[in-house]
Design a protein that fits this description.
CATH class of the largest domain: Alpha Beta
Radius of gyration: 22 Å
Strand content: 5-15%
CATH superfamily of the largest domain: Response regulator
Order of helices and strands: HHHEHEHEHEEHEHE
Number of strands: 7
Structural class: alpha/beta
Number of helices: 8
Number of domains: 3
Strand order of the largest sheet: 2-1-3-4-5
């Protein structure tokens, strides 16, 4: 759990200076304040006394353009309302730095939990340290549509490997042999898992996986 001393060390300032920034005092140079605030975000530091229950949860999703994400958020918000919780909706634009900024904002607002929909956790080339720090802070988090086994976090989603395997088996049963795969970005965890399922089904049917795979960014036609 990050402390004020950790923040001061990360920002390269004294504990007293870091304390003035945290307290919102004006007698701090702007560049120093920026360093301290950046350290607070990176360490997910929340000042003591801001941890009481609030009846609010944070919903973080990558964008509003893909209709599945707003639909998921709407369903979750409806269920949260039924349970007596309010929601704060955050669109990260699939950017890790925005996700981290939102996480710090939500912590600062004392939310009781956070739900990450198709979050940066699904980017296998990304930095996932902020999730581990969240757990160290005792935050309640849930992943939807993507999770890593390295962290003990509840998750809800499709078994992507089985999905790729079943889809390929279906085409094989129809008599097809050259089965391509139009996939999302190669660094995207569900993309990799579906590819594993496809390859497993092809090998089980006596075919060696070929290069009939095309990667592309996700978009809405």
């Amino acid at each position: 759990m990050a402390t004020l001393r950790d923040v001061a060390r990360e920002a390269g300032v004294s504990v007293a200076t870091a304390s003035r920034v945290v307290s919102g005092l004006d007698n701090v140079r702007s560049e120093t304040r920026e360093r301290v605030e950046r350290a607070m975000r990176e360490l997910l530091y929340v000042p003591p006394g801001r941890r009481a229950a609030t009846g609010v949860i944070g919903l973080l999703l990558p964008d509003f353009e893909n209709p599945i994400f707003p639909a998921l958020a709407q369903a979750m918000e409806n269920r949260a309302t039924e349970a007596g919780f309010a929601s704060i909706l955050c669109s990260t634009a699939s950017a890790a730095y925005r996700e981290v900024d939102y996480v710090h904002m939500l912590l600062d607002r004392r939310v009781d939990g956070m739900i990450f929909i198709s979050c940066e956790m699904t980017n296998t080339s990304g930095d996932h340290d902020h999730y581990a720090r969240l757990l160290e802070e005792g935050a309640r988090i849930v992943f939807v549509n993507g999770a890593l086994n390295a962290l003990s976090v509840p998750s809800v989603g499709v078994d992507e490997a089985i999905a790729g395997e079943v889809a390929t088996q279906h085409l094989l049963e129809l008599g097809h042999e050259r089965i391509g795969y139009i996939a999302g970005p190669n660094y995207y965890l569900p993309t990799q898992q579906k590819a594993m399922g496809r390859e497993s089904a092809l090998r089980a049917a006596g075919f060696e996986p070929d290069g009939l795979v095309a990667h592309s960014d996700f978009s809405v036609a």
